[in-house]
Amino acid sequence: MEIKVLGSGCSKCRSTIGVIERAAQASGVDVEIVKVENPDEIRRSGVKATPAVMIDGKLVHSGGIPSHEEVQTWLMPRPIGLLNHPTRHLFFTGKGGVGKTSLSTAAALTLADAGKKVLLVSTDAASNLDEMLGIELHNTPVPVPGAPGLSVLNINPDNAAEAYRQRVLAQMGAGASEEELSTVREQLSGACTTEIASFDEFSSLLSDGAEQYDHIVFDTAPTGHTLRLLSLPKAWTGFLAGNDRGASCLGPHSGLKMQEVRFKAALDALSDPASTTVILVTRPDKGAIAEAP
């Protein structure tokens, strides 16, 4: 953090620098103090009394020596700008190991601390949210101890696939023969079903499955998996619109109208900038930033 101390270099200016250095050391914050003693530059900065202090181009103090407590407030982490007016759905995405889980968790905690009901969702089968929050992850929301208003959920592909199979079979009703049930079980045994089952849970969160929450924060899998997940609403909506008979890895087509409505609602939510924000997380170097888009 760069902190400018503006003044003539008098004893008060030196004392101000000392207070900032001691407060930064106590807070564990790295600061770079820049002394500005040129009178013309001080006037151009709009300073009327010295010593003055500026952080990120903003005047935070003018005249006299700041207190230790005042300086510590300057050094406190500032809220993430995107949380000033957050949309309902927040997606943190990017390559593996760039800090998506840390940032999504920080955002969820910040919203919960502000009194909002928040659901933090991991779409990564190898999620480490359990280690970060110290709780066991499930396919259903789990309240986070010590964080009122915050719950966490992990979309586990295998669990989602089994729940999806049972739901599709139940939709067939008691009149279905064992041969018909066996055929559908076979249709629902592949990787395609696992993918669509995970997507089905994902879609429910974007449509009607989490209405009790003010915000849903998604800690996504690495970029390639996430791009596939985000493309599915349009792909499967098109499939359902163009096929009115037979079966697929979604199950018998006649029983999929509920999913068709859900998939359309998910597509509408993802397409609405007033409802959804995607935050690209990357490392702070030119190569990574150039590759990220």
Note down, in words, how this protein is organized.
It contains eleven helices and twelve strands. Helix 1 links the parallel strand 1 (2-6) and strand 2. Helix content is 45%, strand content 17%. The protein is elongated. It is an alpha/beta fold and 293 residues long.
List keywords for this structure.
293 residues; alpha/beta; Glutaredoxin; Rossmann fold; 2 domains; six-stranded mixed β-sheet; four-stranded mixed β-sheet
Instruction: Give the terminus-to-terminus CA distance.
Output: 27 Å
Number of domains: 2
Number of helices: 11
Rg computed from alpha carbons, rounded to a whole number of angstroms:
26 Å
Strand order of the largest sheet: 7-8-6-9-5-12
Characterize the overall form: elongated
Strand content: 15-25%
What is CATH's topology name of the largest domain? Rossmann fold
For the record, the CATH class of the largest domain is: Alpha Beta
Question: What is the typical, i.e. mean, pLDDT?
Answer: 81
Structural class: alpha/beta
The helix content is 40-55%
> What CATH architecture of the largest domain do you see?
3-Layer(aba) Sandwich
Q: Which stretches are poorly predicted, pLDDT < 50 over at least 5 residues?
A: none
Summarize the structure.
By secondary structure, this protein is an alpha/beta fold.
